[in-house]
Design goal:
Layout: H1 6-11, E1 25-29, H2 41-46, H3 48-61, H4 65-71, H5 74-77, H6 80-100, E2 107-112, H7 116-123, H8 129-149, E3 152-158, H9 162-172, E4 175-181, E5 184-190, H10 191-200, E6 208-211, H11 224-235, E7 245-246, H12 258-268, H13 275-284, E8 289-293, H14 298-306, E9 311-314, H15 318-321
C-alpha cells in the first residue's frame, strides 16, 4: 500500500496548494517508550484508512500485531520487536488521517525521535508504508538481539548541559544517547557504568539522575552489532528523495539524498539523538506549529523547554481529529 493517494499528494505540492492556504506546519513522530496498550484502537475503529494499515501490518509482520497493540499484554507490547512497529504504524496512520482531513496542505517538515525518524521518512514519501514497516521490524529485531547479548542501561541527567554530560560520560566510559532539550540529556552504556554515572551526577553539577526502565543501551556502542547488520538490510532498499524536509537525528540537519539517508539511519543506532538540534533547525526554517503523531505528548514537553514559540497539537486518538 502506498502512502498517499493522488489527491493527497496534491496537498503536499507547494505549486498547487495555494487554494488550501494555512500556516506552515510540521509533523513530529515519537520514539520508543511512547507506547501503551490500546494504542491505535480508536483510529482502527473510526478511520477506514487506519483499519487498512493495521490489517496490512498484521500481514507484513506475520503475527497478530493488532491484538498486541489493542489488548496487550503490556510486557509483550514493550518488547523492542513489537513496540517499534507499533509506534511506526500509529504515527503513519495519524499522519495519513491528517492528510485526509486536509490539515497538511502546507506541511514543510517531519521530525522523528529515534525510531520516529523512519516514520518521518515514510511520511515524506522516501518509502511506502509496507517497505518502512519491514525496515522498522528488521531494526527492532536487531536492536532487541543486541539488548539480549549485552547488559546495558540508560539514565536521564536532569539540570546540566552537554559539556557536563560529555565529561561525565567520558569519566564513566559510557555514551551520550539523547540530547532531548535544555536540561535533559540521556546517557547509555554498560549497566554498572551507567549506575556509577547516576551516582556521581549531583557531584558533577546535575540536579538529579533518573535510571530508565529500558531493555538495553540504545544509541550506544553496545548497539554496534545491530548498526552493522542494519547496513546490510538497507543496502538494497529503494529510497526516494523526501517530498519535504526531514532532519536526521545524527546531525540535527536536513538529509535528502537517498544514500545519505541510509547512512544516517545506520549511524543513528549507535549515535546520540540530537533532538534539540533537529527542533531548532526546523524552527530556523520558520516552523512553529506541529502535529505530534504519537502518545504521551513527550515531544511537546521537550518543545516547551526548547522554545516557547513552538505550538504542538496531539494527533493520535480519534477524538484529536474530530
Amino acid at each position: 500500500m502506498g502512502w498517499w493517494t493522488t489527491a493527497e499528494k496534491r496537498l503536499f505540492n507547494p505549486a498547487v496548494s495555494g487554494q488550501l492556504k494555512s500556516m506552515a506546519v510540521g509533523l513530529l513522530f515519537s520514539g520508543q517508550g511512547a507506547q501503551r496498550v490500546g494504542m491505535g484502537r480508536t483510529l482502527y475503529d473510526n478511520a477506514p484508512s487506519a483499519r487498512l494499515l493495521y490489517d496490512e501490518a498484521n500481514h507484513v509482520l506475520g503475527y497478530d500485531f493488532k491484538k498486541i497493540c489493542f489488548e496487550g499484554p503490556e510486557e509483550e507490547l514493550t518488547q523492542t520487536r513489537v513496540c517499534q512497529p507499533a509506534l511506526y504504524v500509529l504515527g503513519f496512520a495519524s499522519a495519513k488521517i491528517l492528510a485526509e482531513k486536509e490539515k497538511l496542505s502546507d506541511c514543510k517538515a517531519a521530525l522523528g525521535l529515534s525510531l520516529g525518524e523512519l516514520t518521518a521518512l515514510a511520511a515524506a514519501g522516501v518509502f511506502d508504508f509496507a517497505t518502512g514497516l519491514r525496515l522498522v521490524a528488521a531494526r527492532a529485531e536487531l536492536m532487541q538481539k543486541a539488548c539480549e547479548t549485552t547488559k546495558g542501561g540508560m539514565a536521564a541527567l536532569i539540570g546540566g548541559d552537554r559539556a557536563l554530560a560529555e565529561a561525565l560520560a567520558k569519566e564513566c566510559d559510557i555514551d551520550l544517547a539523547n540530547l532531548n532539550c535544555p536540561g535533559q540529556i540521556v546517557v547509555s552504556g554498560e549497566a554498572d557504568k551507567v549506575t556509577k554515572a547516576a551516582g556521581l551526577a549531583k557531584e558533577r553539577g546535575f540536579k538529579m539522575a533518573m535510571p530508565l526502565k529500558v531493555a538495553g543501551a540504545y544509541h550506544s556502542r553496545l548497539m554496534s552489532g545491530a548498526s552493522a547488520a542494519y547496513a546490510d538490510v538497507l543496502k538494497d532498499a529503494e529510497f526516494k528523495t523526501p517530498r519535504f524536509t526531514v532532519y536526521t537525528n545524527v546531525t540535527g540537519k536536513e538529509v535528502s539524498a537517498p544514500e545519505d539517508i541510509k547512512a544516517a539511519l545506520v549511524k543513528q543506532i549507535v549515535s546520540p539523538v540530537c533532538w534539540e538540534d533537529c527542533q531548532r533547525a526546523a524552527l530556523a526554517q520558520g516552523i512553529t506549529e506541529y502535529y505530534e503523531c504519537g502518545l504521551g505528548a513527550v515531544l511537546a514537553g521537550f518543545a516547551k523547554r526548547i522554545d516557547k514559540a513552538i505550538v504542538i497539537k496531539q494527533a493520535c486518538e480519534w477524538a484529536d481529529f474530530e
